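Note to self: keep these together.
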Amino acid sequence: MKKALFLFGIICSIFCFSQKNQAKNPVYTHISEIPNYAVLKTRLKLDDVAVKADQAPEFPGGMALFKRLFTEKMDNVELKNNQKLDTRIYFIVEKDGYIRNVVALGSDKKHTEAAELGLKRVFIRWKPAMIGDKKVRYLYTFPLTTKKY
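Structure:
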C-alpha cells in the first residue's frame, strides 16, 4: 500500500502544469534567457536552436499523453522523508521531429538521471517547430517537481 501511495504521489506531482504553474514558466524570446544557460551551452549544441517559434513542436496525441508516457517510463527514485526535488528538463526537438539531446539539471543526481532516461524512453516522433515555412531545432524546457506524501 505504501508503494502504491508513493507511486500515486509521484505521478500526481510529476507534472504540475496547471494555470498557476504555467505562470511560473514564462515564454522565452532568446536562448540566453533560459535558466541554467551557462551550463546548457557546455552540454548541448545551442547555436541554431529556437526558443520561440511560429508553431511550437507538438507531441502526437497532445501533451497529456506525453506527460503520461514520460511518467510511465521514468524510473522511481526513492525519496527521503519530506524530500522535495526540483529538476528542470531540457531537450531539443530536432528538425526531423526526434529528441536526441536531453539534459536534466537538479538537486539530486539519481533523480536527474532517471528523468533523462525516462525522456529518452519516450521515443516518439514529434511534429517539429516551424518558423515561417522552415522546420527548426527547438529547445523545450519544463520543470519536474516531486515531493513524497
